[in-house]
Design a protein that fits this description.
Layout (H helix, E strand, L loop, with lengths): L27 H8 L9 E7 L7 H17 L2 E8 L13 H13 L4 E4 L5 H11 L2 E3 L1 H12 L3 H15 L24 H5 L2 H28 L4 E7 L5 H9 L16 E5 L7 E5 L9 H6 L1 H8 L3 E7 L5 H14 L7 E6 L7 E2 L22 E2 L3 H11 L4 E3 L8 H19 L12
Helix pairs in contact: 2-5, 5-6, 6-8
Bound molecules: guanosine-5'-triphosphate (GTP) and magnesium ion (MG).
């Protein structure tokens, strides 16, 4: 099989998703030159991506999902070098992919430098074991990858405890024989979880640890709850949305906060709250929260209860959407679905379409993956770009369609921010009136 760089034909890739165009050769030599010193040039781990899309899934969707997986891998500090796709009715119960595809992956892994194989789904404990035995490299599934990124990002005691809890819950059913033959390859992506000794101890120890972490979280929760109680008489607003849509950037704009914003997935894992006073309007509390993503592991949602409380207890949600993303409509759905899951879907909501500066009314088609073509990351379909409506038309249609107020902005270029401020101030004032009919908003709002 010819060595080929990761599929690079989708111009829908963006946000810095892995971009290995043949033109932009990033050879080992280039990297060494960049790093100057040979000895200290630490090589990035390389990852092979595997996806088993259901037959009804379009090629464009498959590419988008793989782009997102490549972006997650990049965020975790590794590089996606190859993609394997196999359309199946449902994943193989034994090895996730079929026998033939597994042999193909094995051939690649054996001949090309590969640190890990990453699956765009969760694997059952037995699939994980079988794949490890067969491929003899690190096997990372979607939950493990997301947990790894969360572990990198979590800073506060609460977030760290939440991540640790989710890691142990992930580990528990996978204890038997896990990673035993991989001791030498420990470290790097997918391995930031509990250390060697814990992995080798029995389930009881892990269960004890889970119980301990749950108790610790309860304590932290009580403290947070008491803190929140002191913020009486304030309307609480929470920024929600898919990961990387610009929530923290908006938080920084409105709240004059210094929240970490970055073109990486899950830049924010800790919740941050700031008091916001817009000119002479009613002050309110604004919280920035963790972003959502498709197939967010349920266990992770459960263990992030305290962070998600910020959303659950909010009076108003600002649902931020990245309109420049080709999949933005599906992302809206993922966010709405997650809100339903955490029982926060019936709150008043402002829909904020961000990144209008980057909106393109034409999106290049995704490459067409042929089912039985072994080199299927190569596109076989170069049809015309998919047209999308001009921004004005999209705005009109959304404004007419949604029952929630809608505003279109560019947080980066500070475009239309005044409209957002006005809308927000008006909604907060209305909510304040309903909630505290006998209160004066000014001077009564506690920090
Ligand atoms: N082009 C453009 N980029 C933007 C805009 N707003 C934010 N960004 C960029 O988008 C990236 C993600 O922004 P964040 O504010 O970190 O997004 P987030 O929603 O907080 O992301 P997570 O915390 O990872 O869920 C950053 O590189 C921002 O600079 C915008 O209006 N236009
Ligand atoms: Mg953020």
């Amino acid at each position: 099989m010819a060595k080929q760089s990761e599929n690079s034909h989708s111009s829908t890739r963006h946000h810095g998703a892995t971009d290995n165009t043949p033109a932009r050769r990033d050879t080992k030599l280039d990297r060494l030159l960049k790093n100057k010193t040979y000895e200290t040039a630490k090589e990035r781990e390389t990852a092979v991506l595997v996806s088993v899309p259901p037959r009804r899934q379009t090629e464009a969707q498959t590419t988008e999902y793989l782009d997102e997986l490549a972006f997650l891998i990049e965020t975790a500090g590794a590089e996606a070098t190859k993609r394997f796709v196999q359309k199946l009715e449902k994943p193989d119960i034994r090895s996730y992919v079929g026998e033939g595809k597994l042999a193909e992956i094995k051939a690649w892994v054996t001949h090309e430098k590969t640190s890990m194989v990453v699956f765009d789904d969760d694997l059952s404990p037995s699939q994980l074991r079988n794949l490890e035995a067969e491929l003899k490299v690190k096997i990372v599934d979607r939950s493990l990858l997301i947990l790894d990124i969360f572990a990198l990002r979590a800073k506060s005691a609460t977030a760290r405890t939440q991540v640790e809890l989710a890691q142990y819950q992930y580990l528990l059913p996978r204890l038997t024989g896990l990673w035993t033959h991989l001791d030498k390859q420990r470290g790097g992506v997918g391995m930031k979880g509990p250390g060697e000794t814990e992995i080798e101890t029995d389930r009881r120890v892990v269960r004890d640890r889970i119980a301990f972490l749950k108790e610790k979280l309860e304590d932290l929760d009580k403290q947070a709850h008491t803190q929140r109680k002191t913020r009486t008489n304030s309307i609480r607003v929470a920024l929600v949305g898919y990961t990387n849509v610009g929530k923290s950037t908006i938080m920084n704009l409105l709240g004059k906060a210094e929240v970490f914003a970055e073109n990486k997935l899950f830049a924010t894992v800790d919740a941050t709250t700031r008091k916001v006073v817009l000119d002479n309007h009613v002050p309110f509390l604004l919280s920035d929260t963790v972003g959502f993503i498709r197939k967010l592991p349920t266990k992770l949602i459960e263990s992030f209860k305290s962070t998600l409380d910020e959303i659950r207890e909010a009076d108003l949600l600002i649902h931020v959407v990245d309109i420049s993303h080709p999949n933005f409509e599906e992302q809206i759905e993922v966010v709405n679905e997650t809100l339903r899951e955490i029982e926060a879907s019936d709150k008043p909501t402002l829909l904020v379409f961000n990144k209008i500066d980057q909106y393109k009314s034409e999106v290049d088609p995704a490459p067409n993956f042929a089912d039985d073509d072994p080199d299927q990351e190569f596109p076989t379909d170069f049809s015309a770009p998919t047209p999308r409506p001009p921004l004005e038309q999209l705005q009109e249609s959304y404004m007419a369609r949604m029952h929630d107020p809608v505003v279109f902005i560019s947080a980066q270029n500070k475009e239309n921010i005044e409209a957002l401020r006005e809308l927000l101030a008006r909604r907060v004032a209305e909510l304040f009136q309903v909630r505290y009919p006998y209160s004066q908003p000014y001077g009564t709002v506690a920090e």
